[in-house]
Amino acid sequence: MFNKQIKEYRYENFTSEDFKEMELDSIKFDNCNFKGVSMSDIITRNCYFNCCNFAFASLNGSRHINSSFVNCQFASANLFSSTFKDCKCIGSGFVDADITGIEIIRGNYDFCCFQDSDFSGMTLTDISFKNADFRKADFRKAKVQNCNLTSAILSGAKFNNADIRESILDGVYLKDVCFAKTKIDLQQAVLIAESMGAYVY
Prior knowledge:
5% of the residues lie in helices and 16% in strands. By secondary structure, the chain is mostly beta strands. The longest helix has 10 residues, at 186-195. The protein is elongated, with a radius of gyration of 18 Å. The mean pLDDT is 96.
């Protein structure tokens, strides 16, 4: 049974627990299972989740401040209107998760998997997405500014009418990305032109 007075859990199965509207502070979870758990409106502060399973969990309305989710799985999780502020989510997977209305404020999402995710209309600023997988992701009308997308996978991604100025695209294969009416800066324009085979002098 979960007791938030205990500050470290390892290999625990919480699938029969209800975390709805809980407030967790400075608790470490290592290889724990939260599959399908109700966690709506939960608040985590300075918590550390390592290799935890949140597949099909209900995290709608949740708020996470300075928490870490390293190598965690959020497959098909409900993250509707959730907030991640200054979080570290390195290597985590968000395939088929509902991220409608999600708010990501700064943070590190290197090596995360966001295949087919819908970021349309969102504002993403000062976030590290190095080596992240955004295959077929939808960024239409989004603001992706001052983000680090170095070596990210963007094949099939759509940035129609988006604003990506001041974001880093070094090492990204750009030929299969849709940039229709996208606002870009000069450095990005050079990278896109070179991806099309042009020589920029």
